[in-house]
Amino acid sequence: MAIQVYNTLNRKKEPFKTIEENKVKMYVCGPTVYNYIHIGNARPAVVFDTIRRYLEYRGYDVLYVSNFTDVDDRLIKASIEQGDSVLNIAERFINAYKEDVNALNVREADLHPRATETMPEIIAFIQKLIDKGYAYEAGGDVYFRTRKFQGYGKLSHQSIDELKVGARIDVGEHKEDPLDFTLWKAAKPGEITWESPWGVGRPGWHIECSAMVEKYLGDTIDIHAGGQDLTFPHHENEIAQSEALHDDMMANYWLHNGYIKINNEKMSKSIGNVILVHELVKKYDPNVVRFFIQTVHYRHPINFNDELLSSAEQAYDRLRTTYYNLLHRLQHSADLLETDERNAWMETIKGLKDRFIAEMDDDFNTANGISVLFDASREANKLLQDKNSSKEILEAYLALLDELTGVLGLSLAKQEELLDEDIENLISQREDARKTRRFDVADQIRDDLKDKGIVLEDTPQGVRWKRV
């Protein structure tokens, strides 16, 4: 049975068929890097990392691209408030983002393009839209002619007539039509800018993703994904730009994860309920946070609070207890089963794996996939009740739990926490390696420490470290 994917574009599940056989081109809209990420930013990172992992598990070669928006109004505002450059702030929070999602076992994208490093392609893309009559320059700004693109509104399922209600032209704008959106913004005093055929300025938000998709993945891709809040206007505008230029579909499947609420309220700075990831993982095992996100289907809204996270922690501990009981029994087991009994156990294990695949094939339903994990745990506990449990079957259950949790990016094995003196010894070994120019050894020590939740910072005063 083919994987079924819910396509926002058509509002239904569709069989997943790739452009190239067994290859997936996947683009996920990444964060605007002006601050630490919150749990709302973490959900798409975890969701689409899981989907990527599952596609690879099912035999696809996935090229995964996720951008960093490193210039926009919020970064410029942060630059003014902090007295630092836009590029410095962006670099700091790109590193912070990577630390936070790494804690949640989110694998790095194959490519992490940045808006500031894609400027020639962005400018060229805009110029080609002007040449085709889909865009125009006015007062140093460049706008997209929304009405000229016949398919506008098809992703968010809105008509032009619905959209024009409430649309207006703000003071200082030179639009032909209130529905037109900005591709290029003329420079304002004190802002970071680039040279362009229309004068100095900077790109609008939507154009960067269209230019990056074209540059790194091509005119049409398999999957374009992001949070539900991006459906309109961001993804709608991306479609308009890209399809107007290429006269072809931008993406065959559009995937969007649902919203996050905190104690059943919308997360908002104004009411002070924003949960930052780097604070959350100090309180809860990052595996538990990732597990909790996956207990709800990715398209559905999810509610966060301490009570729900504590329940997830208890549930995850039950899986871990089974896992470690299997490991313990393995040390005192032997293969004593008759062939029929062995075959019955192996058939049960195969059935559990097949059920997991069937649930995940149904629009990546991690919630139901996790239910299969608990069924596997219950079956394993039946095995543990037999004092003469078979080594082969114990190993098969351990392998099943490792395989299925691995697909979800989870680990049931607890990491041994390093003592402070162990960390200092490893840092000393790293320094010795650097002094003798064995940089591969030094880098490996740094990476090993990072995998154990220890982040190093090289300063003029020496190496500092912290647990994350």
Automatic annotation (TrEMBL):
Entry's Gene Ontology molecular function annotations: ATP binding; cysteine-tRNA ligase activity; zinc ion binding
Print the keywords alphabetically: Aminoacyl-tRNA synthetase, ATP-binding, Cytoplasm, Ligase, Metal-binding, Nucleotide-binding, Protein biosynthesis, Zinc
Q: Which InterPro entries match?
A: Cys-tRNA-ligase, Cys-tRNA-synt_Ia_DALR, Cys-tRNA/MSH_ligase, CysS_C, Rossmann-like_a/b/a_fold, tRNA-synt_1_cat_dom, tRNAsynth_Ia_anticodon-bd
**Cofactor(s), names only, from the UniProt record:** Zn(2+)
User: Per the UniProt record, which EC number(s) apply here?
Assistant: 6.1.1.16
Domain of life from the UniProt record: Bacteria
The cofactor remark states: Binds 1 zinc ion per subunit.
Q: Where is this motif: 'HIGH' region?
A: 31-41
Motif segment ('KMSKS' region): 266-270
Cell compartments where the protein resides? Cytoplasm
Per the UniProt entry, what are the Gene Ontology biological process annotations, in alphabetical order? Answer: cysteinyl-tRNA aminoacylation
Q: Which residues bind ATP?
A: K269
Name the reaction it catalyses. tRNA(Cys) + L-cysteine + ATP = L-cysteinyl-tRNA(Cys) + AMP + diphosphate
GO cellular component entries: cytosol
Give binding positions for Zn(2+): C29, C209, H234, E238
Domain named Cysteinyl-tRNA synthetase class Ia DALR: residues: 355-419
What is any Pfam family matched here? tRNA-synt_1e
SMART domains to which the protein is assigned, alphabetical: DALR_2
Looking up NCBIfam families in the UniProt record yields: cysS
Q: What assembly does the database describe for this protein?
A: Monomer.
- Could you say which protein family the record assigns here? Belongs to the class-I aminoacyl-tRNA synthetase family.
Q: In its UniProt entry, what is this protein called?
A: Cysteine--tRNA ligase
Q: Which organism is it from?
A: Scopulibacillus darangshiensis
Gene for this chain: cysS
